[in-house]
Amino acid sequence: MAAASPSPLPTSVSSADANPAATRAFLGRLVDAVKRALAGARPWPELIDRSALSRPESLSDATARLRKNLAYFRVNYAAIVALSLAATLLAHPFSLAALLALLSAWCFLYLLRPADAPPLAAFGRTFSDRETLGGLIVASAFVVFLTSVGSLIFSALALGAALVCAHGAFRVPEDLFLDEPASDAGASLNLLSFITTATGGRV
Predict the structure, then answer these.
(1) Where are the transmembrane segments (predicted)?
(2) Buried b (16+ CB within 10 A) or exposed e, 103-119
């Protein structure tokens, strides 16, 4: 009696690996963008100068100080918020691992996939780019809103924003030179332009 042929099993994911050239371009532009952003940071001793701290006289005074300090220390403040987020995630390894897995899925299944790569195939069916994008969006919403990852991220951002607002309200900005070149503001708007270039305009 002939042995029965094994039943077909669901196929594993057969998407092509991310294009190495695109990956290198993405990482290179990411590093360059971070370096350009950090190059605009003000000296940290100037930020933490205790002699320049004083209690604001009123709410309008605090708001005016915060507005000026945000314009002057914007890179330093962004670094403070980023450090708050990083410290919070490092203190919760499971949430950090879940977030890294989600970011990896976005990179390798959508952002960095070559344009001529075959459609994603899994569990016996083929998924189009639109279906893959929809699945990633659903997975992102699940991780951010239905797990502890989202609450940790929002808590870290709130803590960083609170520190920035407190410093901006108490730091006297009279000794700061707030004249900025017009091109500097335009450059800050293009900090994340490397994403579009590295991914071939998919974002």
Answers:
(1) 71-90, 96-112, 133-164
(2) eebbbbbbbbbeeeeee
Q: When comparing pLDDT for 174 and 63, which is higher?
A: 63
- Report helix angle 74-90 to 148-170, nearest 10: 150
Closest CA to 71 of 48, 42, 50: 42
Does residue 7 belong to any structural domain of this protein? no
Element (H, E) at 172: none
Residue 132: is its pLDDT beyond 60?
yes
Domain contains 14: no
Query: Which residues have CB under 8 Å from 63's CB, separation 6+?
Result: 169
Prediction pTM value = 0.65
Calpha distance 158→143 (Å, rounded): 19
The CA distance from 38 to 78, in Å, is: 10
Contact present, 122 and 12 (Cβ < 8 Å): yes
Q: How many domains does the chain have?
A: 1
Type and span of the H or E element at 149: helix 148-170
